[in-house]
Write a structure and sequence with these properties.
With 191 residues, the chain is α+β, with helices and mostly antiparallel strands. Helices cover 20% and strands 35% of the residues. It has 3 helices and 12 strands; from the N terminus they run ααββββαββββββββ. The strands form 2 sheets. Strands 1, 3, 4, 5, 7, 10 and 12 form a 7-stranded antiparallel sheet that branches. Helix 2 packs across helix 3. It is globular and about 45 Å long. The mean pLDDT is 86.
């Protein structure tokens, strides 16, 4: 298969009006449902720790569509998530299937230790919804850092970060602010 649909997906996600609408929906949802998040299940993610003796670091998700952690698959609820559901529909027109859509929030001080996803038949896309701390550079203090297969990367507001999570990856959040992304699992376009 061609990887051309992936370029189209990036363009859809990174449109300023799209990323702004997604961020606004997340803020509205979070305000209306402060307890609507799901902590990442320890049985699935026992690989997280707090950095530098910090306490209270966390990783939580707001499930939107697809397979939920430890739960059944669900369709996108357009009454709750009109912009996100519209975006998922637009991605579907590229020929790529969105398997899961959720918002993922990491609190300051979190270290998600090195781990691998279960399969290489998908890609993980993160659209930066709330990214106030910039990427740190190879262990410098402050910022966010993701290492995938030995490569250092990070997140930016309104931009997409994509990776194959079958490669070993980890996250170090040395910043001061939470990081929120729209996390999508999509079919791997090259398979």
């Amino acid at each position: 298969r061609s990887t051309e649909p992936l370029s189209t997906v990036f363009a859809l996600l990174e449109r300023s009006e799209t990323s702004a609408a997604v961020a606004a929906e997340f803020q509205q949802w979070e305000t209306a449902h402060p307890d609507g998040w799901l902590p990442q299940p320890e049985v699935l993610h026992d690989d997280k720790v707090c950095l530098d003796g910090r306490e209270g670091c966390y990783w939580k998700v707001w499930h939107v569509a697809g397979k939920a952690p430890l739960g059944p698959a669900s369709p996108c609820d357009a009454s709750a998530w009109p912009a996100v559901c519209g975006l998922l529909g637009a991605i579907g027109t590229t020929g790529l299937n969105v398997r899961t859509a959720q918002f993922s929030e990491l609190g300051p001080g979190l270290h998600i230790r090195p781990h691998c996803g279960a399969t290489n038949d998908r890609l993980v896309l993160h659209l930066g919804v709330e990214v106030k701390d910039g990427a740190s550079k190879n262990g410098s203090s402050g910022g966010l850092e993701m290492l995938v297969g030995g490569e250092v990367g990070g997140w930016s507001q309104g931009r997409v970060t994509a990776f194959d999570d079958s490669y070993e990856h980890e996250v170090l959040h040395r910043g001061q602010h939470r990081r929120v992304v729209l996390l999508l699992h999509i079919d791997h376009p090259a398979l």
